[in-house]
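Final report, Chapter 2: Outcomes

The project's central promise was a pipeline that accepts a single protein chain and returns its three-dimensional structure in a standardized token representation, suitable for archiving and comparison. That pipeline is now operational. To close this chapter, we reproduce one record exactly as it appears in the project archive, with the input sequence first and the structure output second.
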Amino acid sequence: MTVAEAVSRTIAEFPFAGYMTPGGTPRATYFTVGAAVLRHLEPGARILDFGCGPLDKTAVLQRLGFQCAGFDDLADYWHHLDGNREKIVSFAGSAGIDFHLADGGPPPFEPESFDLVMLLDVVEHLHDSPRDLLNDLVGLLRAGGYLLITVPNAVNIRKRLDVLRGRTNYPPYDTFYWYPGPWRGHVREYVRGDLERLAGYLGLELVELRGCDHILYKLPRMARPLYRAVTGVFPALKDTWLFLARRPEEWSPRKELDQTELNRILGRSTAFQYD
């Protein structure tokens, strides 16, 4: 089955009309992620989709022949409307996905039990450092397994132009001001250098790091050729980063620095004179 066929069949069964097809066409992320996974894994490999949301991307990979598990708290505002959470759980069952609803504890999976762990548009929502979480998730990978992350580009062309015009590069203020309950939107987006450092801090071998066009549907059709031309020459202006890194044979988590190194790093952002 091709990625396009898997996407088409998933759309036909997905319980939320229009979610997978904003602007009338399938989201580009399904094709980007599907192709990236197929480049590095054979069908039958085990994949964990951490922060899977309504399991749309998970289901595409399941249709491609991978054994997929999903993990999410399903606590976004829209998840609680009109029985949507129950619809997602039901969809997981019909798609054959091993879905687990987060209850505040660690993911209920054995160490080194997955060939790939992915966090698709997840890390930008974290209010704290991703250090502990990502080290724990890498611990679920077998030696040679992959960590796949997609994250919005903090300096894409739209944000650069908005800042030049005095506009914000953050999420729209009305969505922040009126959001019901704790903020679930973007907290920190990433640039290329952040992701290069992330691979190093996690002790992973960086395999792919490239810009992608995941929200091109938000642009007017007439502007898309110009966007593609500019970002084709300057890929660091694309809207999204795709990060794929491999766990080496000899790997151990690194969650702390020695005090001297920690003081050096923290001293850059405060007037306090660390010893």
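Archive annotation: Residues 3-269 form a domain with the Rossmann fold fold (CATH 3.40.50.150).
This record, like all others produced under the grant, will remain available to the consortium after the project formally closes.
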